[in-house]
Specification:
single chain; alpha+beta; Arc Repressor Mutant, subunit A; 2 domains; nine-stranded mixed beta sheet; two-stranded parallel ribbon; 10 helices; 13 strands; DNA-binding
Length: about 300
DNA sequence: GCGACAG
DNA sequence: ATCTTGTCGC
């Protein structure tokens, strides 16, 4: 799913003489949480027929414009919209009658459906562990894969480059990153994969590490630097009363698929070095290097 | 103004 | 995540 295209289709529906808001467009996408992402996607809009200037703040304030707010004001006035003290009267000009299929709602339903296949019980051999991470430039994602043997030696590295077609939206990270991870795992079969992001530690109990694990039927662990949700009590994280992960040092560890919370923690600790399990840290470094070299040949 | 939501 | 330089300190 290309969320950029879905959003441009919505914004094109705002008629001349009316405006909508970042939040309204986000709701039409299916989740108010995407409001910031709407702003980011509009800022990168390449189509001149998409009237970005017709999207403003929910309090009637103008918001930003890639080529300057003055330009936004001029275009709005040309449409016949009155601006008083830098604000628009939304009671008079708001458009919120989008025709939409609520794409993000469909993705949430897919997460719930895939979650039924998720197994949080140990079901893996333990000989090799791979780490995966992604580095971003304006238009591209650079994914890296680093595989270790059980003694901690690196036995394989690979990288891929791919165009970005989905913005970062909290709780939908998998839809931004999974295409890259799927490309990386082709022809590889590590016993366990560590992903930079959460697994069970997710409001719908289905973070990117779970999503990846289920789709590829590979044991996986989520490694996050920040807590997405839940309550922390003595290093354990709970979501809806369920223990979904553990804080190990400064990172949050949660199972993805085919592994228990306890095993996810013990394997993570076994590879821990510089506050981060080496497979993920090395993948992070490799992804960054690859992006920098591609940006400055 | 506060709280805050992986990357 | 990215934008960004040097600098202080273990």
């Amino acid at each position: 799913m290309n969320l950029y295209e879905e959003m441009y289709k919505l914004v094109k529906q705002i008629p001349r003489g009316m405006v909508s808001t970042y939040g309204c467009v986000a709701r039409a996408l299916g989740d108010i949480r995407a409001a910031r992402a709407v702003g980011i996607m509009l800022n990168q809009n390449p189509y001149k027929e998409v009237p970005c200037y017709r999207v403003v703040y929910s309090d009637g304030g103008l918001g930003g414009y890639a080529t300057g707010v003055e330009k936004k004001i001029a275009l709005l006035q040309r449409d016949g919209i009155e601006i008083r003290d830098g604000k628009i009267d939304l009671k008079k000009y708001l458009f919120d009658d989008f025709e939409t299929t609520y794409p993000l709602k469909r993705l949430r339903e897919e997460q719930e459906r895939l979650r039924k296949r998720m197994r949080i019980e140990d079901d893996f051999e333990f000989s090799t562990v791979a780490g995966m991470d992604i580095s971003y430039s304006k238009r591209y994602a650079y994914g890296a894969y680093v595989e270790f043997d059980r003694e901690g030696n690196i036995i394989k590295k690979k990288v891929v480059k791919r165009k970005i077609d989905f913005p970062y939206i909290p709780t939908y990270l998998a839809y931004r990153e999974l295409p890259v991870f799927s490309e990386l795992i082709q022809n590889e079969r590590p016993d366990v994969v560590m992903i930079d992001g959460n697994g069970l530690l997710h409001p719908r109990l289905f973070g990117v590490a779970c999503h990846f694990g289920v789709v590829h039927d590979i044991p996986s662990i989520g490694i996050a630097k920040k807590k997405l949700c839940g309550e922390e009590r003595e290093k354990s994280i709970f979501v809806n009363g369920r223990k979904v992960g553990v804080k190990v040092g400064k990172i949050y560890v949660s199972p993805g698929h085919r592994i228990s919370v306890d095993s996810a923690v013990s394997i993570t600790k076994r590879f821990m070095k510089y506050s981060m399990p080496e497979p993920v840290r090395q993948a992070h470094i490799l992804a960054n290097e690859t992006r920098r070299e591609d940006e400055n040949p």
